[in-house]
Amino acid sequence: MASNESTIRYSGNQDSEFKNSIETTYQFGCEYEFYISEEHNFEQVIFEITQSIYEISDADMLIDFSYLPIDEDKNYCFQIKSDGSLKSNGVEITIPITSRIGFVRYLERICNLIKQYGYTNRDTGLHIHISTVDSNGINFNFYKYMLLCDEEQLLSSWETREGYSHNVMDILSQNTKLEAKKIKTDKGTIWNLEKILPNHIEIKSIGGIDYHLDTQRLIHEFNLYADLFQETLEKDSEKHLALYKKHKAHINSVSSEKQKQFMVAIEDAGIIEKRGVDDPSSSSSKKHWKP
């Protein structure tokens, strides 16, 4: 039984071709934003998409275009719903928490559904969630992960979607007073990489016109993000120390005013924890952003 009166819940297909599962160490999720083409009947398309998803997984489905589902187990269900960032006939499909294999399998099938019934444009994107199954004692090094992703050119691979997917490295490398102000007023909404919890990362870098048509590129980049997530949890190597040194040299090459802006920005963005230092430009504060 669904928790919202407006939410329709369907039990998963126990005879489906794929049994959803979670790995013992890592878990993955994804949200797909798209539009249903105007030549289609919206309600009929939702019905047909629901039938298609029923065939591919034993996870329950939640459908709601009035309110967001609030079921306690919603993260373990498929969700078909509206999205506040999209206009009319916009849809978001959220997959259940799954394994790495499940992520790729769902990606291929959902991209085909988008191709069949709809389209993607500059409003739309694909959001990847990666976390550890065990949250105890995990404090993910977000700074390290950003540098690794930037080194692989993942954060600048897709066109920026204004207001939703700005390159988070801009906080580190090109911060201005204007950008710092954006971070303070829109924390967690404009950057393409975000630390949700100590063990949970959300990636919003992928999206734009026809993103759903390039499934091999999507799979390749997802696997890179997943590999780098695992690497981030490992002990620092010479490679990582070199990345830190390179970026520290860049920060130290700018003016003291710019360094002060940088400290304020990365604290307000949640990249590092605030340590109760009033003046971000003080010598003790400058130590905080070191990995």
Task: Describe this protein with a few key phrases.
9-stranded mixed β-sheet; 17% strand; disordered C terminus; alpha+beta; single chain; 291 residues; 9 helices
Task: List the helices and strands in order.
Answer: EEHEEEHEEHHHEEHHHH
Based on helices, strands and strand pairing, what is the structural class? alpha+beta
Q: Which residues form runs of ≥5 with pLDDT under 50?
A: 276-289
Overall outline: globular
What is the helical fraction, as a range of percent? 25-40%
Radius of gyration: 20 Å
Average pLDDT across residues? 87
> Whole-Å distance between the termini?
47 Å
Helix count equals 9
The counted number of beta strands is 9
Sheet bearing the most strands, described? 9 strands, mixed
Content of β-strand:
15-25%
Outline the structure in words.
- This protein has 291 residues and is of the alpha+beta class.
- Helices cover 37% and strands 17% of the residues.
- The chain has helices at 42-56, 100-117, 142-151, 169-173, 177-185, 215-232, 238-252, 256-268, 283-286; strands at 8-10, 26-36, 61-64, 78-81, 90-94, 118-119, 125-132, 193-197, 200-207.
- Strands 1, 2, 3, 4, 5, 6, 7, 8 and 9 form a 9-stranded mixed sheet that branches.
- Helix 1 (42-56) runs antiparallel to helix 2 (100-117), helix 2 packs antiparallel against helix 6 and helix 3 crosses helix 6.
- The longest helix is centred in the middle third of the chain and has 18 residues, at 100-117.
- It is globular and about 60 Å long.
